[in-house]
Amino acid sequence: MKNTARALLGAVVASLMTSTAFAEKLTIATVNNGDMIRMQKYTDDFTKKTGHTVEWVTLEENVLRQRVTTDITTKGGAFDIMTIGMYETPIWGKNGWLVSMNDLSAEYNADDILPAMKGGLSYDGTMYAAPFYGESSMIMYRKDLMEKAGLKMPDAPSWSFIAKAARAMTDRSTETNGICLRGKAGWGEGGAFITAMSNSFGARWFDEKWNAQFDTREWSDTLNFFVNMMNDAGPPGFATNGFNENLSLFQQGKCGMWIDATVAASFVTNPKDSTVADKVGFALAPDNGLGKRSNWLWAWALAIPAGTKKEAAAKQFIEWATGTGYIELVAGKEGWANVPPGARTSLYKNPNYTSVPFAKMTMDSILSADPNNSTVDPSPYVGVQFAAIPEFAGIATEVSQEFSAAYAGQQTVAEALAKAQALTNEAMEAAGYR
Amino acid sequence: MAREITSQRKTINTVAAWAIGLLIFFPILWTILTSFKTEAVAIADPPVFLFFDWTLENYSIVQERSNYGRFLWNSILIAVGSTILGLLVAVPAAWSMAFVPSVRTKDILLWMLSTKMLPAVGVLYPIYLLFIQLGLLDSVLGLTIVLMLINLPIIVWMLYSYFKEIPVDILEAARMDGATLKEEILYVLTPMAIPGIASTVLLNIILAWNEAFWTLNLTAAQAAPLTAFIASYSSPEGLFYAKLSAASTMAIAPILIMGWFSQKQLVRGLTFGAVK
Amino acid sequence: MATQNSRSAARFMLAPAVVLLLGWMLVPLTMTLWFSFRKYLPLRGGDMGWVGFDNYVRFVSSSSFWPSIQTTLIIVGSVLIITVILGILLALLLDQPMWGQGVVRILVIAPFFVMPTVSALVWKNMFMDPVNGLFAHLWKFFGLTPIEWLSQASLPSLVMIVSWQWLPFATLILLTAIQSLNSEQLEAAEMDGAAVVSRFFHIILPHLARAITIVVLIQTIFLLSVFAEIFVTTGGAFGSKTLSYLIFQRVLESQNIGLGSAGGIYAVILANIIAIMLMRVVGKNLDA
């Protein structure tokens, strides 16, 4: 009732303000991440400004992917705006399924979007989705535990230092694990982590002829290093831990280090949820002396399916949600640490934001990831922790399932790699690459 | 003497049954309890059972995030709607199979059950395309029809086995007295079949309420029921046991309460012809 | 008894149900069959032509196929065995005189009302989590190392979750059957001094045969399509991929409709094999 009244009021205000546009109802599919849930809270501001109302469909990441993919491939039209990532955008854009974002208004200032994000959300020079927030990955660590272990975290550590520190910080009697990393099956979970990590070990998914590379020494080094370190210093059951499980563990003070999405920085430093909020330090994701770091690049972005009848209103929403005005709105209400990060250059020039402890490291991490040149040896694909081809999600999910089984000790690393090699080549053959 | 033994045995039975009952119920109880804890208490080590500061905070957070009432309303519409639709189709079918059986009755019955064996995900694409064509995507009507079809075999079978237990003599007596077919069904058969119909209705509501594939994949904002509501809580960020518990409790409470109040009816008719 | 008149009326009343279900079965099935012979890749531009039996060959020759059949049979079989045995024991117990029978019955049937997604989430996070789960606390209390349920014992964990959901259903049906047992028969046997065990095997169990058949039949139908529990807990890892989960991966994760459709046809075949086997057995007990 109250909502209806508010919507009506909004509509009246809007029709007074803009005489041409009339109120639309937008259906938006989004992921249940903290920043999106916060955005839902402020939707009233959008309604007040434009008169359009918004219906949210909030889903867990995997369910969201399957839902929006089914809808876009069948041209179902169930959603006016979809929240998608850097993986989907170029593929869908290429297929002509998304509305171009090149014609957003001048006030929106699309040039302010970080080039790395814009590049990852474009196909052939056309931007097909506007980043709501962007992220890379970095090390979050407990300063107190590091000190207790008698070590000092460099700004840009190597994997050997991380492994040493992880073992030194581990204390099983207090359930303190030196390091928490993703082991959960799924291309966007453990798959993304191990792929980004493998880049720093000189591994790659495919050679230039699209042959799978899991039979190489680089991959076996990556996986063995990971498994040995996690067995010594990781939490029990790490084979089923994803982003969220690790976040919980870190917030409870059970992890010495955690290498994961830069957006997590604001969660672990938030005293309301985190028991270790004042003890967290940040560093760049580790490297292995080969010139590539193991951090990824990702953006959650808003896109409009082609053929929608509400394109104008949908664009208004995207300008509202991904523009600088929204950042200021959140900053005013909840503080600068809670604004959606990683999307706009101006944010990192804003003195209010640069004083946030994790701002610089986030920016440096984002800048050090290059989707077009992510591997030591040349590769035929674009993407850091994924390869932007339609087949990747399916293949990588199965590969990461084999890896997770190895993490859990159900098969050896060599067995997992052999299976990964076979199933990847098999799928690539089926898709006509080889 | 005999009496003493009985009472002793009764005590043992009671203790054993209560222990097992509580064990089976425990996961639900634990979820409900956790929903009243703060996130910190929810993961306390050792776990806290009853003595904590009870809070409604999680419920207000969940409510603030999603409009529970709307999901609930859709769940009710879909569950009840599909049940009513299902009964309209199933009662006549079950009646005819029970009272005018032919050689193929059993085959038809088993064939109906076999339609439930097509894996849902295998036909998602065809059904999705069909729904777009028919304009049924994200509509309560569309879901109601799908759920009715999914559960129809079970309803038909349940009603059939129940109808079969009704003595034919009574029906024939009514017919002798000059009752028409319509009167026969309305005044003789229906009253006797009420318990069976009641438990069929309950079972169907439960099945429809808990169906999580179609209800999730064929809806967006308009028709989404509680199964979609819970899909947004499965892995939020950070500590979430308490919030997850609150959302879970909200999703199952209505059907749990309905089930408890009607368990006598449910139990009485839930035989599928198992009793001869 | 049945006149010509009532017979045609009966056919008329049966028609809507049959027609509806026939449509519900044939339309998707035909479309699935059609897709299964096409190279249908939505992300690569949709329908890319006829490929004969390629999809069928590829689906079976994939290294995941036979393990998925095995997993399916293990899950269905274990859950059936557990629910039937525990269901009989529980039904026997609930049939005894006791105080608060109604309340106990409510407690026992409650899991049946919980939607699969919720029960999977609750079990996974609040019980089986190796750090914060209740089982972990329990294990630690006894000085043991907590089990990593979902990775080290993925199938038993899944079987446990699914059995918990279906035990009430089995118990209820079996209980009704036990309650219908002629108490005179039992008393007579008791008078004869028949031991409890022999009474169970000679009188109660034969009496329950029909109810057990029905529990097996209905549960099999539902268990073959178990999905949410796997999706939420293991995501198909650790050898927990059933046939229907494999199809899900092919259709939705790999976006290969043709391949997934071929898998769907295999699933129909598997379901029908199981159904025919069941009906052989059921047919006898279920003399309609």
Outline the structure in words.
The complex is a heterotrimer of chains A (434), B (276) and C (288). With 434 residues, chain A is of the alpha/beta class. Chain A is 43% helix and 14% strand. Chain A has helices at 2-17, 34-41, 43-50, 61-73, 88-94, 115-120, 143-148, 159-169, 190-200, 217-233, 243-251, 264-268, 311-322, 324-334, 351-354, 359-367, 392-407, 413-430; strands spanning 25-31, 53-59, 81-85, 122-123, 126-127, 130-142, 177-180, 255-261, 280-284, 297-303. In chain A, the strands form two sheets. In chain A, strands 1, 2, 3, 6, 7, 8, 9 and 10 form an eight-stranded mixed beta sheet that branches. In chain A, α1 crosses α3 and α17 runs antiparallel to α18 (413-430). The termini of chain A are far apart. The relative contact order of chain A is 0.17. Residues 12-20 of chain A have low confidence and may be disordered. With 276 residues, chain B is mainly α. The mean pLDDT of chain B is 86. Chain C has helices at 4-36, 54-61, 65-95, 101-109, 116-127, 134-141, 149-152, 154-179, 183-191, 196-224, 228-233, 243-253, 257-285; strands at 38-41, 46-50. In chain C, a hairpin with a 4-residue loop joins β1 and β2. A two-stranded antiparallel sheet of chain C has the order 1-2. Chains in contact: A-B, A-C, B-C. Chains A and C meet through α4, α11, α17 and α18 of A and α7 and α12 of C.
